[in-house]
Amino acid sequence: MSASATASLFRTPRSRPPPELHPPNLTLALLEDGKGLSEAATELGLSPGQLSLWRNEHLAAGSAEALALRKAEQAEVQRLKRENKRLEEEVEILKKAAAFFARGIA
Asked: Using one digit for the tens of pLDDT, what is the confidence trace for 11-20?
């Protein structure tokens, strides 16, 4: 048997589990139920390292999503403040115009 054939016998393929077993679905649900990482990994037939990696990926993705959401909300608040200021200026102009024309009618 060649060296490459022997090496391939001991290598396990890096495949992803089906979506129902991949975070944030079942794996994180098991962790949130108070089960330890090792216990949840054993129950799923995974190594604790793999489950830990998935958990960290999920948490990092959640942090990135939260940051993006926060930035989008801040941009929206700034846009609304600018619009509010513009509308307040328009109201002042209209009040002055109404007062001017009211004096001309009376």
From this structure: 455 555 555 5
Query: Domain residue spans in the chain?
Result: 3-105
Q: How far apart are CA 16 and CA 95, in angstroms?
A: 66
pTM of structure: 0.47
Q: Taking the C-alpha atoms of 26, 27, 32 and 35 in order, what is their torsion angle to the nearest 10 degrees?
A: 120
Residue length, the chain?
A: 106
How far apart CA 15 and CA 17 sit, in angstroms, is 6
Residue that the structure tokens 């048997």 belong to: 1
- Token code pair at residue 74: 């801040």
One-letter amino acid at 71 equals: K
Find where tokens 């307040």 sit.
88
pLDDT at position 74 is 95
